Amino acid sequence: LTSLATAVWQLYIIYALVFSITEAVTGQLYAQTVAAKWFVRRRGLALGLGALGSSIGALIYPGLVTQLLQAFSWRETMQILAVGVAVVVIPLILLVVKRTPTSASPVAARPGGDDSQWTTRTVLKDRTFWILVAAMVPLLEAATGLMSNFAPLAHDLGIGSTAAAFLMFLWSMVMIVSKIGFGVIADRFDQ
Known about the structure:
Distance between the termini: 42 Å
Radius of gyration: 19 Å
Helix content: over 70%
């Protein structure tokens, strides 16, 4: 959609509404929900692997986009990326994600298990939940702000696009190792 925009107000609508809703419906929350519902044993690792999407995207896309922008206009680059999602990502999701946890994993959660006591209302009333939210929101906002503005920051610091893409690659590699590592650590401690 971004490639079709002809005015700034259209970009505001695309980013504020379409991208926000799409991210909420298909992003980390969805991956974490699927992993938490499907896995009992090694749930921490499953959650860590489910969180890899943004890190893998940050690993691949800066270099890919840099190369595409050197060969094509920004509008053509956005269209190529959109086709890539439609041809590669959507079929992978349809192939991997099953409707019920039991059809997908031998370690799937069973309906009515211990997790059924945690309703949304119970979680929202829990003080520990709000302490975690207060601790994580600033951290996530800082990381998201840095990642979202990394290209202009690198440009302002005189860092070229290739070097900036490499720095994003390093950031992503650390995030991948960290997410898997923390998932494994989570499985070793009582949850």
